[in-house]
Every structure is written in structure tokens, then in C-alpha cells.
Design goal:
The structure holds two protein chains of two kinds.
Chain A: H1 3-29, H2 45-52, H3 56-82, H4 105-115, H5 120-131, H6 141-154, H7 159-173, H8 176-188, H9 195-206, H10 210-223, H11 227-259, H12 267-272, E1 289-290, E2 296-297
Antiparallel strand pairs in A: 1-2
Helix pairs in contact in A: 2-4, 3-4, 4-5, 4-6, 5-6, 5-7, 6-7, 7-8, 8-9, 9-10, 10-11
Chain B: H1 2-17, H2 22-41, H3 46-79, H4 82-88, H5 93-127, H6 132-137, H7 147-169, H8 174-188, H9 191-195, H10 197-200, H11 204-216, H12 226-230, H13 237-264
The chains are: A mainly alpha, B mainly alpha.
Chain lengths: 314, 268
């Protein structure tokens, strides 16, 4: 390497380092604001489709990635702003009940699926993002159903979309009759798994009780090949186990309180009194909370929050 | 025939000398980088996204090669005045145009073949270690041979675009040729809109003109089967055969006009 080339490389390195330093100083003195993700310049999927021409599938992928980033970013921002998730989920969503934090989520998913009408995961994951109660999702089960119905118009033979609409009714709007009807429709599609038929019947008979929920999520866990959906099913099953634990612990605490009114209400005291063998933890490993009034709940830091709403006992 | 082949080989060598094949390195970096990053950016459908990206990049890189080299094939010879020494040799002008076309088509074919190998290699890497049950749930297998249909039709489309670029370059400046070729590429992908224009406008005359343009302008949308292949939808053999026949006819048409225009040009 001759001297002139070495000098040129050295100069380039110095200039680049200077540029990096200047940028770092500028950002320290004038911190950049949070990136505003609230702009969606092109609202129409058909317009984007026209503009992307031969590269429409790639445009669909980009919009899908943007939808994922938007959902994840908004959820993280809301969680960090509001602290841990509420222990009780909000009631089924209505337009007035949710904020506009996720306002771009449906348009992004709509554009994605207009650009690529067979984008399977965009319908299935998108419906979960839309249906999840605020602030974990946009709290819009109505839009989740609309998205899945759009997928069904493209692929009427896709029993998974019918099943997913059933889940939205079951889990988020708690309309068990509608859920049962959608499960039945899914079961009627050739090639659908056998358990959908029994799920439809159980939902119709015992809609929303813990056992039928467990049956549903266990079936999904065992049969789905999509990792995200399997993880989601495992989380739901863990929530149901937590509900069982809370019921059992509550009974034990109530019985101990009835036996000895002086007993201090904390886990350590209950362990010392041999009511419990150890401080109980939920399926995620976070210890349960025991209030001074003797009420057992999940800890506010538990990733299993919010627990599902259960229908009143029949 | 021998002269045409010699010109074609020369164009290929020149493109290698011009470092056109460097785009393959960029393509490989893009695909490998995307395959490593995509799992962090999205949730599922990584293989679909890599297929979309690979096919789109193949088409886009090929388009730039076809247009920017295609427009210079003839005009550069005129600009450099090397056309005089070429025409002084015992070759016909038609041989020059056709030889240049075949040379660039060869360059594109080599490029696209290497890109296809790179795409399959990345897909094989992404397939590795994924349970069979998960793979079965995907719309199409990762190493789907049907991808070759999409890649083949991309090559055919680019060969048609090359013919368009050469056609414009026989009578126009390089910048105008590039603009017109890109314009025809865009219009060629909007053929369905031209066909249905009558339904969107009130003027029957405008509708008729749009329909005439639909039949006359090159229909490039028919070569785009990327979405079908990625979702595992079959592309009928008859469809592919008709698209190939259409491309061959249109290329012959454009080269005939190019040869005629070039033969009548006066280089004094």
C-alpha cells in the first residue's frame, strides 16, 4: 500500500469518525423526538396496489412488517406509560370505549390483505391484535371479525378463519351462541379437524365455562403448526390454571380465616401456620398476591394479566 | 449467424468488464441480510417474505440491467463513433442489432440463474431445522420447484423489456430511451386497467382508445406469477406456453422495427 492510499484511507476514517461524533453531540444537545408513527399517507389498499405494480407481494410484506412494528411499538409504549396490565380486563369493546392509540392497525392490515389477499398470517394474527382488550390490543373484536370475513371472501374453504371468528366471539365478545355457530361452520368445511364439532357442541351447551375453554385451547395447542398461535394457546391455558389456583387458594385462605380470626393475612404467616407448604406462584412463576382483606389475585407484574372474563355460573 | 454470435459474446464480455455482475453480490447480501433480520421484524411467514423479496429483487435488478444496458447498446456505438468501424466490417446492421440483443439476453440469463441459485440456497437455510409438520402448514414448500416458473417468466419479461429498450435506442437519446422504456414497463403492468377503462370513463372514444392501447402495448402483467407461485397456486402449463409465445412474437416485432429503423439511419 503506498503512502498516498494510506493517507486517503486515514482521512476517510477521520472524517467518518468526525461525522459520527457531530451527530452524537447534536443528539445530546437537541434530543430527537419520538418518531411519529401516526401517519399513513396512503389509506387505500387499491391505490397502493396500483402504485406497486409488479412488486405488489413485496409491498404487502412491507405493510405487514409495518403493522407488526406498529402493534408492538404501540403496545410497548402503552404498557410503559400505564404500568402493569389491569387485573380485570375492560368490558367488551365499543367504539367509545377504546382510544385511538391503535387507530392505524386496521388500515395497515386492510392494506396488507388488499395487496396480498391470500396473506394467511395477516388475517389470523391481525385478528388477535385487533381483538385483544385495550391496551394489549386495539379492543376491536368487530374489526377482527371484519378482517377474517375479508379473508373468507378470498378463501371460503379456509376453516381456520371460521374457527378464528368463533374464538373472537368466545373469548372477546363472550357471545357463546355465535361462537358455537362459527365453530360449527368451521367443522362443516372438508378437512377441518374433528374436535371443532365437539367444541361447537360444548360451547353451545356450557359456553364459556372453564372446562370448555380448556378443551378449546388444548386442542389448538396440540394441532396448530403456527408457533405464535401455539404460544398464545399456552398462555391461555396458563391463565386457566391460574384461575383454578386462585379458586383453591381463596378457599384455603377463607377456611384459615374462619378457623383463626387473628391469623395475619400474608403468605409467610399462612406457611408458618401450615395452611400452605410454600408461597404459591402462578404458572409464569410470579407469586400470587394476598390482600389485607384476604383476597387472592395475580400479582400486578404477572405476564398472565389480564385474566379472562368468565360467565356467571349457570 | 457467426457474426451475430460474435457480437452477442462480445456484449456479454463487455457487460462482465463493466462489472454488471457485481449486482449479484448486492443481491446475495440483500437476501442473506433479510433472512437473518426477517425473524426479528415479523411474526411468521418468513419464507413467504424471503420468496417475495427474492423474486422482486430478481425482477428489479434485472430491469435495471435490461434498461440501462439496453439503451446504450446501440446509442453508445453511435456516440463513441465506433459504429463506423463496425459498419465497415462485413456485417449487416440487422446482425448488429440482433447480436447486441442476444448478448444482453445472455447476460440477463446468467444473472438470473445465479440469483435463482442464491434464492434457493437461502430458502434451504431457512428450511433447515424446521419440523416437517410446520412446513406442511405453509402455503408452498420452501424449495418449491414452481419458483422456477416465476423466475423463468421474469427472464422472459426482461427479454421483452430489453427489446423495448433497444427499439427506443435505435432512434432516440439514451435518457429519453430509458424514460420511455420505464414508462412502457409501468404501463405494461397496468394492462387490466386499460382493458377496463371503458367502465371508468363516460367518453366512449376514450374507452375505445384505452382498449386499443391494451391490445397494442406490451402486456407485461401476464408474466407476473410471483404471488401465485409463492402461495402455492398452480400456474397452468398452457398459460406459460401462451405467455412465452406472446413474448417471442412481441420481441420479434420490436427487433424487426429496430432493425428497420437502424438500417435506415444515416451515420454520415
Amino acid at each position: 500500500m503506498n503512502a498516498r492510499l494510506s493517507a486517503a484511507i486515514g482521512l476517510v476514517a477521520v472524517l467518518l469518525a468526525t461525522a459520527v461524533q457531530l451527530q452524537a453531540v447534536r443528539e445530546r444537545w437537541y434530543p430527537p423526538g419520538d418518531e411519529d408513527e401516526t401517519a399513513l399517507y396512503l389509506q387505500s389498499g387499491l391505490t397502493v396496489r396500483r402504485m406497486s405494480g409488479a412488486y405488489t407481494p413485496l409491498a404487502a410484506d412491507l405493510y405487514w412488517i409495518r403493522a407488526i412494528q406498529y402493534y408492538g411499538g404501540t403496545k410497548r409504549r402503552l404498557n410503559s406509560a400505564s404500568g402493569p396490565m389491569p387485573s380485570v380486563p375492560p368490558p367488551p369493546a365499543s367504539l367509545a370505549a377504546v382510544g385511538d392509540d391503535y387507530s392505524l392497525l386496521y388500515p395497515l392490515l386492510d392494506i396488507t390483505t388488499t395487496l396480498d389477499p391470500r396473506f394467511n398470517i395477516a388475517y389470523r394474527f391481525g385478528a388477535i391484535f385487533l381483538a385483544e382488550p385495550y391496551p394489549g390490543g386495539s379492543g376491536r373484536p368487530d374489526l377482527a371479525v371484519a378482517l377474517l370475513e375479508k379473508g373468507l371472501r378470498e378463501r371460503p374453504d379456509k376453516w381456520e378463519y371460521l374457527e378464528d371468528i368463533g374464538f373472537v366471539h368466545y373469548w372477546y365478545t363472550h357471545d357463546y351462541l355465535a361462537a358455537s355457530e362459527w365453530f360449527q361452520k368451521a367443522a362443516d368445511v372438508p378437512g377441518a379437524p374433528w374436535w371443532l364439532r365437539s367444541l361447537a357442541a360444548t360451547t353451545r351447551a356450557k359456553g364459556g365455562d372453564r372446562e370448555s375453554s380448556r378443551l378449546m385451547w388444548e386442542a389448538i395447542r396440540q394441532t396448530t403448526e403456527v408457533e405464535y398461535l401455539r404460544n398464545d394457546a399456552e398462555r391461555r391455558l396458563a391463565q386457566l390454571r391460574a384461575l383454578d389456583d386462585i379458586d383453591a387458594l381463596q378457599r384455603a385462605v377463607d377456611a384459615a380465616k374462619a378457623r383463626s380470626a387473628d391469623l395475619p393475612l400474608d403468605w409467610a404467616a399462612l406457611v408458618r401456620a401450615r395452611v400452605l407448604r410454600t408461597v404459591p406462584a402462578d404458572p409464569s412463576g410470579v407469586p400470587y398476591e394476598l390482600s389485607s382483606e384476604g383476597r387472592v389475585t395475580l400479582a400486578r407484574s404477572s405476564p398472565l394479566l389480564p385474566l379472562p372474563v368468565e360467565p356467571p355460573a349457570r | 449467424m457467426k457474426a451475430t454470435a460474435a457480437i452477442a459474446v462480445n456484449v456479454f464480455r463487455e457487460s462482465v468488464r463493466d462489472k454488471v455482475l457485481y449486482n449479484l453480490v448486492l443481491f446475495a447480501i440483500l437476501l442473506i441480510g433479510a433472512s437473518l433480520l426477517i425473524g426479528q421484524l415479523t411474526a411468521g411467514q418468513d419464507v413467504k417474505i424471503i420468496k417475495d423479496l427474492g423474486l422482486s429483487a430478481t425482477s428489479l435488478f434485472g430491469l435495471f440491467i435490461a434498461v440501462f444496458i439496453g439503451i446504450g447498446l446501440v446509442s453508445k456505438e453511435v456516440e463513441r463513433r465506433s459504429i463506423y468501424s463496425l459498419l465497415a466490417k462485413p456485417i449487416r446492421r440487422s446482425q448488429l442489432v440482433v447480436g447486441k440483443y442476444i448478448g444482453l439476453a445472455l447476460t440477463l440469463a446468467v444473472n438470473i440463474a445465479v440469483m435463482a441459485v442464491a434464492l434457493y440456497a437461502v430458502l434451504a437455510y431457512m428450511r433447515w431445522g424446521v419440523p416437517e409438520a410446520v412446513v406442511r402448514a405453509w402455503d408452498a414448500p420452501p424449495l418449491d420447484p414452481a419458483l422456477l416458473v416465476a423466475i423463468g417468466l421474469i427472464l422472459v419479461e426482461l427479454m421483452l423489456v430489453t427489446a423495448i429498450a433497444i427499439f427506443f435506442s435505435t432512434f432516440s437519446t439514451p435518457i429519453l430511451s430509458a424514460a420511455l422504456t420505464f414508462a412502457l414497463f409501468v404501463v405494461g403492468h397496468f394492462s387490466a386497467d386499460l382493458r377496463n377503462f371503458e367502465a371508468a370513463v363516460e367518453s366512449p372514444m376514450a374507452g375505445r382508445i384505452a382498449r386499443a392501447l391494451y391490445w397494442v402495448l406490451p402486456n407485461l402483467a401476464q408474466f407476473d406469477v410471483k404471488a401465485d407461485v409463492v402461495h402455492g397456486r398452480p400456474v397452468p402449463l398452457g398459460y406459460v406456453a401462451l405467455a412465452l409465445a406472446y413474448a417471442a412474437t412481441y420481441i420479434a416485432l420490436l427487433l424487426s422495427i429496430s432493425v428497420t429503423v437502424f438500417s435506415r439511419r444515416d451515420f454520415k
